Amino acid sequence: MLCLLLFMASCDKNQVYHKLDEDFTENRWQKNVVKEFDFEIEDAAPIYDFVLLFSHVSDYQFSSVPMKIRIEGPTGKAENIAIDLKIKEDNGKDIAECAGDYCDLKYTFKSKSKLEPGKYKIYVGHSFKGPYLPNVIGVGLNVQKSRDK
Asked: CATH topology for 14-145?
């Protein structure tokens, strides 16, 4: 009962969608694999933030990762976003929150967005030069009501 109460208290009422995909064989994100996230917006009144979740092995060998994101809305309109996901600070320190061998990075790639009601699809891929991106534990998406208005 106590666990249930703690879980309910920790729920974020601003969160609309959350998913972390941890399906990476040998922690390798193959170049041809694009992760897909589907969610629905019911309330057009709030403004929303899109947060990329990236979990990796600690002491990651790259300081940044080139990422490709595509947002498809209910009207069929699509938006492509290219980001260079910064993994380390200039001094080499991990930006992510790390515990043991695992690090979790959150990156807001689109903020203060008005969204029409309906179904959305988000596609996340990488444009790393090799055949796969190594030491990836998970990639995910958070869609939340913006706290800044």
From this structure: Jelly Rolls (2.60.120)
